[in-house]
Amino acid sequence: MPSREQNIANWSQYDWHDRGDAWSTGFGSSSMLWFRTILPRIFFFLPARNVLEIAPGFGRVTAFLLEHCERYTGVDITPKCVEACRERFLGVTKAEFVRNDGLSLDCVGDGSLDFAISWDSLVHAEPAVLEAYVRGLSAKLSPGGTAFLHHSNLGALRDPATGELSVANPHWRDANMSADLMRGFVGDAGLVLDAQELVQWGAPAAIDCFSWFHRPRVGEAPLPDADTLVHPSFEAEIGHSAWLWSNAGRARRS
Ligand SMILES: C[S@@+](CC[C@H](N)C(=O)[O-])C[C@H]1O[C@@H](n2cnc3c(N)ncnc32)[C@H](O)[C@@H]1O
């Protein structure tokens, strides 16, 4: 939980009047979210020829991503979101938005993707969804192509004795997904895990994870095991970007 059906229901009735920008408030703005929190984590892979975004919503991250690729495909499970992106990016001929079943990547060609990303969306997805997308990416990524997925780690925060969650779940994270499960999905799919980062998002523990993994090139030498970075607090991680927006950026703030 949340299931794919619950995601469709939730995001269909959600009030999208700000296209999701309110979720960027803690970072300062969506620009600060992109430039300070997302871009430093993915700039190694940009610009890219062919980019996939899983679950773009109303295009909060897409607006920035589009400047760094030649071809872009966004797949989202919620029809309202696909329609909104088609409208928002009308005339951007390199971009295509597709509704999917929340599992499959059939709309992109095998071996065609140089970079795939999902931000702030699959945190609400069950392990089976992540497993399916990782398996799909193993076919769709080009050799050397990388994926960066933001997903839940709440499943790691269960009391070993009772199985109960040891923290609250106010942000609708999937309660079973974890960094360790992702590690297994990536290995089982024949992909290489490059790094994982555990972050706190309004909770007193690391409820979210960023995972980077790539499709190995033919003959690629084995790499050391992926490193995991655990941030001590949300404030420590992003406090500086909010300060920049409020202070150094105030003349341009809108
Ligand atoms: C919180 S919104 C985030 C949207 C966008 N990534 C952003 O950061 O503004 C969650 C989005 O994930 C989509 N979604 C949820 N589960 C999905 C799945 N299994 N496959 C594709 N899209 C999914 C929803 O339809 C919605 O557009």
Description:
The protein is α/β, with parallel strands linked by helices and 254 residues long. The chain has a single domain, classed as Rossmann fold. It is built from seven helices and eight strands, in the order ααβαβαββαβαβββα. It has an eight-stranded mixed β-sheet with strand order 3-2-1-4-5-7-6-8, with helices on both faces. α3 links the parallel β1 and β2. The longest helix has 14 residues. The protein is globular and about 50 Å long. The mean pLDDT is 93. The structure holds S-adenosylmethionine. The site of S-adenosylmethionine has 22 residues, from α1 and β2.
Give the strand line-up of the largest sheet: 3-2-1-4-5-7-6-8
Any guess at the CATH architecture? Answer: 3-Layer(aba) Sandwich
* Amino- and carboxy-terminal Cα gap: 38 Å
CATH superfamily: Vaccinia Virus protein VP39
**Mean pLDDT over the residues:** 93
Helix content: 25-40%
Number of domains: 1
Strand content: 15-25%
Give the distinct bound molecules. S-adenosylmethionine
| Outline | globular
Structural class: alpha/beta
Query: What is the third-level CATH name, the topology?
Result: Rossmann fold
Could you tell me the number of beta strands? 8
- Low-confidence segments: none
Name the helix and strand elements from N-terminus to C-terminus, one letter apiece: HHEHEHEEHEHEEEH
CATH class: Alpha Beta
Number of helical elements: 7
Radius of gyration: 18 Å
Largest sheet: 8 strands, mixed
